[in-house]
Design goal:
Keywords: Pyridoxal phosphate. By secondary structure, this protein is α/β, with parallel strands linked by helices. It has two domains: 19-256, 3-Layer(aba) Sandwich (Aspartate Aminotransferase, domain 2), CATH 3.40.640.10; 259-392, Alpha-Beta Complex (Aspartate Aminotransferase, domain 1). The protein has 13 helices and twelve strands. The strands form two sheets. A seven-stranded mixed sheet has the order 1-7-6-5-4-2-3, with helices on both faces. Strands 8-9-12-11-10 form a five-stranded mixed sheet. Helix 1 packs antiparallel against helix 2, helix 5 (139-146) packs parallel to helix 6 and helix 12 crosses helix 13. The termini are far apart. Bound molecules: pyridoxal-5'-phosphate (PLP). Residues 88-90, 113, 115, 155, 159, 184, 186-187, 206, 208, 218, 220, 337 line the site of pyridoxal-5'-phosphate (PLP).
């Protein structure tokens, strides 16, 4: 049962294997005559076991051969030694944070994924954990908040405001102060940034999003180079039972094989649409790190590979305008979640749990891999309805 994952060897001895090649090759079974090219999916809750159980597979909550190829592939993409799959992104975050107590002080972006903030608020209420919500783009303020903290749980870019953190500086400052660091890399994907190389202790993903990529599974994964952290997270997974089903892991690995193609296309589509949206008269604000005017542009250009596939859009007409835009779209799917092949969007403040500092009219758009002209044609016709609407209800 391998728990640490060697990376596939490069065919060019002096060069590392490129990420796109890793996405395709990592986690394959050994090459043996007559063996399968893909890892088999094992549907068994228990394993043959008699007498001393040490070292043998025993029970599927503790580990299965279906998890390992996916874990190995994600670990390879993140440049990590350990990958640990869990039943959802939230399970991955909970496992990475471990059992927080009243001694813990967690620093977290104020615009993190709302369920992450909800989880921390719950820990604050039930366990007395201190939670310090920060503007993650304000590096000096975050460094100040790290004094006396025990954990930095960073998202970059943030969901849904797309703020970009100065990860190298924040992770170094955390290390100097003995603060444990967890980075949620869901938005960037391992192709956009590798936080372990920037100094993070642990990286988490909602694999539900880009890693699996087809909106057909809910799954999470943690990666780390730290043997002790990996052992703790595996023990947490076994104890809490937040495990992944074999079919979900199969689908996620299948999706992962095309991660580089999907991300490349989604990023290119998003950059093009962001530029066109920024020039449209029915648009108040566009957030996408590719735009030279975006507050996160320079930082993203310096520390990321690609600007991501998520756009923040504030159309004319406030929350009602945003809702009207969503209603007028035909190709874009109104849905929560992100990172699938299909383009989706939603107004985040429709959730009472979303941070109040997120604008009421902000649409989070997850750009898919469709033809960009079709995506634009749909947006343009929906934006035109806003222009007509404004004509009917002219502002005083
Ligand atoms: C950035 C981020 N982290 C974590 C999660 C939670 O993942 P899951 O829904 O797989 O539990 C999400 C879900 O939207 C997310 O966007």
């Amino acid at each position: 049962m391998s728990q640490q994952h060697p990376r596939p060897e490069s065919p060019h001895p002096s060069a590392p294997v490129a990420p796109g090649t890793l996405a395709v090759t990592a986690g394959r079974p050994p090459r043996v005559q007559g063996g399968p090219v893909n890892p088999p999916v094992v549907l068994s809750s228990t394993y043959v076991s008699a007498g001393d159980p040490t070292g043998a597979r025993l029970y599927a909550r503790m580990g299965t051969e279906t998890w390992e190829p996916f874990e190995e592939a994600v670990a390879a993409l993140e440049g990590a030694r350990h990958g640990i799959v869990l039943g959802s992104g939230m399970a991955a975050i909970a496992a990475a944070l471990g059992d927080l107590s009243a001694d813990d002080v967690v620093v977290v972006p104020r615009h993190s994924y709302q369920a992450t903030l909800g989880f921390l608020d719950d820990r604050a209420a039930r366990r007395g954990v201190e939670v310090r919500r920060v503007d993650i783009a304000d590096t000096d303020a975050v460094v100040t908040a790290l004094d006396g903290a025990t954990v930095l749980l960073a998202e970059s870019p943030t969901n849904p405001m797309l703020e970009v953190a100065d990860l190298p500086r924040l992770l170094a400052a955390a290390r100097e102060r003995g603060v444990r660091t967890v980075v949620d890399n869901t938005f960037a994907t391992p192709l956009g940034q590798r936080p372990l190389a920037l100094g993070a202790d642990v990286v988490v993903h909602s694999a539900t999003k880009y890693l699996a990529g087809h909106s057909d599974v809910v799954l999470g994964v943690v990666v780390t180079d730290d043997d002790e952290a990996a052992a703790d997270i595996r023990a947490y997974r076994t104890m809490h039972g937040a495990i992944a089903g074999p079919m979900e892991v199969y689908l996620a690995l299948r999706g992962l094989r095309t991660l580089h193609l999907r991300v490349e296309r989604a990023n290119a589509n998003a950059a093009e649409l962001a530029t066109r949206l920024a020039g449209h008269p029915a648009v108040v604000e566009v957030r996408h790190p590719s735009l030279p005017t975006d507050p996160g542009h320079e930082r993203a250009a310096a520390q990321m590979t690609g600007f991501g596939g998520i756009i923040g859009l504030r159309p004319a007409g406030g929350a009602a305008g945003a809702d009207a835009l969503v209603d007028a779209l035909r190709l874009w799917v109104p849905a929560t979640s992100l990172g699938g092949v299909e383009s989706t969007l939603e107004r985040r403040r429709r959730f009472a749990t979303e941070s109040v500092t997120v604008p009421e009219d902000l649409l989070r758009m997850s750009v898919g891999i469709e033809d960009v002209e079709d995506l634009w044609a749909d947006l343009a016709q929906a934006l035109d309805t806003l222009v007509r609407r404004a004509g009917r209800h002219p502002r005083p």
